[in-house]
Design a protein that fits this description.
The chain is of the alpha+beta class and about 70 residues long. It has helices at about 15-30, 40-50, 55-65, and strands spanning about 5, 35-40. The protein is built from three helices and two strands, in the order βαβαα. It has a two-stranded parallel sheet.
């Protein structure tokens, strides 16, 4: 079993602090818990990489709606 922490990453100062907190938590868990921190941005890129050409319109919709691209 894996505990996944899904979060929206940010390039600003809060994002830097948050990534440091996530790294600290990961270190504290020390492998005792199968833990994975995953930014929404990475999850979306993984989703795009596994999507078919048939879903291109929906992927574009998601990209625009949630990432303003």
């Amino acid at each position: 079993m894996t505990l996944v922490y899904l979060f929206y990453d940010d390039d600003g100062p809060e994002g830097v602090l948050h990534r440091q907190d996530v790294a600290t938590l990961t270190d504290l868990l020390g492998g005792e818990v199968n833990f994975r921190a995953l930014p929404y941005q990475q999850m979306f890129q993984d989703l795009v990489g596994h999507s078919s050409a048939d879903s291109a319109d929906y992927v574009d919709y998601l990209r625009t709606r949630y990432f303003g691209e």
